[in-house]
């Protein structure tokens, strides 16, 4: 599942709910729920694979955006090599 999230984020930053929806669109067979994705995003952030940033453009609905760090990009590259 982490690989799927990183594959989506390699295209650019996204907020949690957006990732859940995109995962459902591209990998519905995973049947992921928000309660599964958000803890994984936190763990990936703690491990330095992702960076999170709050966007307060709409103060009533702030969004936490995630993006890959350099370590995350390297981890994705290594996982893709393994899959070849």
Question: What does this entry look like structurally?
Answer:
This protein is of the alpha+beta class. 55% of the residues lie in helices and 17% in strands. It has helices spanning 2-9, 16-26, 34-46, 70-83, and strands spanning 14-15, 50-55, 63-68. Strands 1-3-2 form a 3-stranded antiparallel β-sheet. The mean pLDDT is 90.
In short, what is this structure?
The chain has 84 residues and is an alpha+beta fold. It contains four helices and three strands.
Report how far the terminal alpha carbons are from each other: 18 Å
Assigned CATH class: Mainly Alpha
Q: Could you describe the largest sheet, including whether it forms a barrel?
A: 3 strands, antiparallel
Fraction of residues in helices?
A: 40-55%
Largest beta sheet: strand ordering? 1-3-2
Separate helix tally: 4
CATH architecture: Orthogonal Bundle
Could you spell the SSE succession in H and E letters? Answer: HEHHEEH
Radius of gyration: 13 Å
In terms of DSSP E residues, the strand content is: 15-25%
CATH topology assignment: Arc Repressor Mutant, subunit A
Low-confidence stretches: none
CATH superfamily: Winged helix-like DNA-binding domain superfamily/Winged helix DNA-binding domain
What's the number of extended β-strand segments?
3
Mean pLDDT: 90
């Amino acid at each position: 599942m982490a690989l799927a999230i990183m594959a989506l984020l390699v295209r650019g930053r996204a907020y949690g709910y957006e990732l859940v929806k995109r995962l459902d669109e591209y990998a519905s067979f995973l049947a992921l729920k928000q309660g599964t994705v958000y803890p994984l995003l936190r763990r990936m952030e703690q491990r330095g694979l992702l960076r999170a940033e709050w966007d307060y453009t709409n103060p009533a609905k702030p969004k936490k955006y995630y993006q890959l760090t350099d370590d995350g990009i390297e981890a994705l590259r290594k996982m893709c090599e393994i899959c070849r």
